């Protein structure tokens, strides 16, 4: 079952912050974040593991709340290059294999100058 | 390094026709994946291959077959195309079956009329 992302779309100005949420109806062992720019392939941003710490990528960080079965992606001081669609992926199977991921429908982020 | 390459980039098929999408990676990765991406649906796993000689079904395998020809190549075949298979198809690879980062190819845009 695919995770649910919110919001579906965000528009902000350069320098503003944004939060993208990803929640699942089942227990999560890991959450994977990818970014896809228009017409391009998805690119890996980070992974959060159960019991692991918050991972970061430049000014993009994320958290993982196992009890609430959700993850949040934080984009701080947004840059124009952050524009794109952000996807979270979670393991299809309860065992948490990273080989089989199911992805949310994405959050379209637009950063304006 | 070319990374992950896919051919063709675009394809139009008539209902009932067959075709094979090709994928190759030059990163010596063990695991390879096929996804489809429909508008508003995110990425869905069709098949994956944890290592050379093995393939497994993903979330949406019906109507597709795959072949892991060797370590570099993983092909996806549509035996009898249907309009519901109109989508963008992405191939991806990862270093090991327990690696988290997946590297995606540029995608194949398939239209079935």
Q: How would you summarize this macromolecular structure in one to three sentences?
A:
The complex is a heterodimer of chains A (113) and B (113). Chain A is 0% helix and 52% strand.
Radius of gyration of chain B: 13 Å
Mean pLDDT reading of chain B: 92
Largest sheet of chain B: 7 strands, mixed
Supply Rg of chain A: 13 Å
Distance between the termini of chain A: 37 Å
Largest sheet of chain A: 6 strands, mixed
Through-space gap between termini of chain B: 36 Å
Q: Please report which band the strand proportion of chain B falls in: under 5%, 5-15%, 15-25%, 25-35%, 35-45% or over 45%.
A: over 45%
Order of helices and strands of chain B: EEEEEEEEEEE
Query: Helix amount of chain A, in percent?
Result: under 10%
Mean pLDDT level of chain A: 87
Count of alpha/pi helices of chain B? 0
Global morphology of chain B: globular
Strand proportion of chain A, as a percent range, falls in over 45%
Oligomer category: heterodimer
Helical content band of chain B: under 10%
Global structural class of chain B: mainly beta
The assigned structural class of chain A equals mainly beta
CA-based shape of chain A: globular
Tally of contiguous helical segments of chain A? 0
